[in-house]
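#lab-general

N.A. 3:47 PM
ok so I finally got the sequence cleaned up, no stray characters, all 801 residues accounted for. can someone with queue access submit it? mine expired

B.Y. 3:52 PM
send it over

N.A. 3:53 PM
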Amino acid sequence: MDERTSNQNVFRSLGVDFSSHDALIESLPFSMGDTTAGSESELQAAVEGSATQVDLAVVIRESSFFSSVLKRCRAGEIPKKQVADLEKFLDGDNRRVWENSWVRFPLKALAPSTQRLFEEDLRANKQAPASPLRADTDRFLIQEEGGSWMRVPISYLLKLALADYLNRSPSLPAICRKEGPRFLNHFLNDNTSPETHSFYISSLDSDSGMGRAVGRETGQRYLLTQCLIQYANLQFQLKDHGQEAVVYYSPHPPLRQKKLNELIPDSFYRELFMSPCLSGWDDGEKKHAYMALCHEVLSRSQLNTLTKLKEAGIITRNLVCLPNPSNTSLANNGTHISLGSRKLTAALADPACGMTEADEKRIGDLVIKITEHFLPLFVETYSAAPYRVDFTGFHPEKALGFLPHELHYTHLRMFWRRWKKKARLKFFNHPVTPFGPEWLDSLARTTLGLKGDFIADFRLIDYLVCLLSTEQCPGLDGTLGNQNRLAKDLMHMGVFHEQMPIYSFFRLRQFFKMGYSGFEGRYYSLFHSLQDDLPHAVDLQHLITLFAYRLIASGSINHRTIPDDPFCESERRQIVFASAIHLPTFFVKNSGGNFFLRHILKYTENIRISSRYPGSFRVHTEEYKKALVRLLRMEAADLVSLLGMDETLRDLEDRVQNPAKNSAGGKLTRSILETCGAKSPFDLDAETFNTAAESHFRDGLRKHHIQESVEDLAERFCHSRKFHEFARRHDPGFLARIHGTRTREVYWNGLPEKLTQGMLSFKEVENLLQALLLSILFDAENQHVTTQETENTGLTPASVY
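B.Y. 4:20 PM
back already:
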C-alpha cells in the first residue's frame, strides 16, 4: 500500500469525510472545535540587593573555590586579573541585580502547613512519605543569625508563596481553597529559570476567542506570578533582609552571568545555577542529575563544533578563540505553545478505531516537515530577542554557536560568508576578522571603526534549537524510534546524548507518551505583547498545522516530496536562522529534491540564479516571507475563512511588509533604544545596548506586560456580568471589598505602577491574588474542556526526561 492510500485510510478511521471539500476541511484534525492549546513560559529571575546580603554573592565568597583562588593568587600561581574580575563581580558597595540568585530567609516565616510541604519536597521519593531526605538537604537548610533558615531558587519560591497564601488566608472562597492546590504543580524548577505552564487548557474556537484565550491565560498566569513574588518579598521577610526578588520575561543569559561563567569552573557553575528540581518530579535528585548531564553535554557539544568548522573550511588558521567549556545556553528563555487535537487523542485512546502509534508518528513527522517551511514567518514577526554582537565576538567558533550541529556544511559556509558581509567586517574593501588576543581585537575595533552586528533573535543562534539528521539516522522520516536512533548516533559523534529528547523547532507530542496528540512550538523567544503578539502567533500556528493536515489528506505532500537527507533538512532550516540574523538572502538548489520548497518559490519574487553558487537560486529572505503569506492567501483561503482568521492574515501582512514598525522585534528594539536616547543599535556599543536591553526587560517591558494583563482583568471586574455572578456566587462581598472606598477605575488604573514598583500593601497583594484565582477559575469553567484534557497538558517534561 502506498503512503497516500495509507494516510487516507488513517484519516477515514478518524472520521474525516472525503465526500466534499467543505466536509473534508471541517472534519480534519485541528479544524474548528477540535483544537486545544496551552503555553509554557520560561521566566528570568533576579534578586536586587547588596553583595553582603544576596545569596549568590554570599555563596561565591564562602566557597572553597573562591578561597582557593585567593590562595593561589597570593602564591603567584594564577594571574591577579582573575581575582580582580571576581572581586569586581562581587562588588558590594552598591545595590545590584543578581540574576538567577537564590534567596534565603527564616524558616519560621513559612506557615506550619507550608513547612510540611517543604519537608515533603525534600523527600528522596515523593511517592514514599517514609523515604529519607535528599542527600543534598543541607543546601536548603542552613543556620544563620542564631536560627534555622532556608535557601531556595526563586522558581521554588513561587510554589511556596502560593501554598503559603492558600494556607494562611482565612477568607479565601471554598472554590479557591479546593482548586488552588492544583496550581502548585504548574510552577516548576527545570534548567535554570522559573517555568510555569497553563493552569487550564484553552479551546481554540470562536466562542473562546481563538488565540486570545491563550493570551489571556498566559497574561493572568504572569500577573499571578508577579503577585506571588510580592507576597514572598513581604511575608517571607526578603525585603527585611536586604533582598527583593523579581521575575520577568527575558530571552538571553544575563551578561553578568556570562562573565562569571568565564571565571569559574563548570562544576561550580552548575552548583550555582542549575535548578535542584525540588518541584514537579518524584525523584528530584535524579532530575537534577539529568539537568547536570544536559549542561555537560551542551558544553562539550559546542567545543565539538570546532571540528565541523574546520571541515567546512570556516576555520583555516591554528589560532582560535575556544568556546568556554561551561556553556550558558540553558539560561536562555522562551515560550512554548502546544496545540492538541481532540480527534487524534480520542482515536489513539480507542483501540477499536484502528489508528496506531506508527500512524501518528508517520503523519506527525510529515506535519513537522511542512511546518518548518513556515517558521520564518514567526521569527521577529511575533517574538524576538534583540542583541548586539561586538566585532570582538566575530570569531566563528563563538559567533556561530551551535549552528555547525544544525546546518549542513554547505549552508554553514554560505551563512558565514553572508553574515560577515552583512556585518561589514571590512576596511577599505579588505575583509577583517578578529585575530584572537582580546587586546588586539579591541584595538582593531577601535582603530578601524568596526561595530559588529545587530541580531533580531539571538536566542535562536545562542541555543541548540534543533539538531540536524545524519545520513544514517533521519529524525523525521516517519518511522517509530527514529529520534532515539538519531540521538544515539549524535552521541557517538559527541554532539548530543541518547538520554535527552531531540531538540527541534516543532515537536510531536505523542499520545502514548504525553496523554494527548499534538505539537509543541518551541521557536518563540520574547513577546512584546501577551495580548497581541502571542494570540496572533497561536492563531497562525493553528492555521499552518491545519493546512499541513489538509495537504497530507489530499495526497499533495508525502515523505518523498520533502526528502529526509541532511542537506534538504538544512536547506529549509537555514531560512529560519537567516531570519533571526536578518541575512538579506539565502540560496536554494534549483534542482533540489524538496518539492514543497520549490512550490513556495513559485510565489517568491526577485529570484535569480546565483553567480557565486551555480545551480542555486538566490532568494531574498523578506521576499520568501511575503511568498508564504501569498501562499496562505491563495491555497489556504478556505481554512482562513473556516477558522475566522482574516484579521490574523491582515495583521501578518502588516508585520511582514513593515517589520521595523509592526513586528515584535521592531517594537522591542525601539523600546530599548528609547531608554538610551539612541536612534539605532549601532549608535551604542554592544555591551551598552545589551545591558540596556536587560534593564528594559526587567523594568519597562515587565511594566508593559503587567499593564496589559491588569487591563484585561479590570475589564472583567468592571464590565463582565457573567463574572460578577460567578464572583458573588463564591464570595458575595469580594467585589465591594477589593475596591474599598475607591472607584473601580481609580483602583485598577493605579495598580500596574504599584505592582511594578513593589509598592502594594500586603492586604492589596492578598486581594489581588484572590481576584486572579477567581478570574482563572472562571475562565477554566467556561473553556468547556474535560478534566482529562486539563490534566494532560503535555507542557511539562516531568513524564519524559
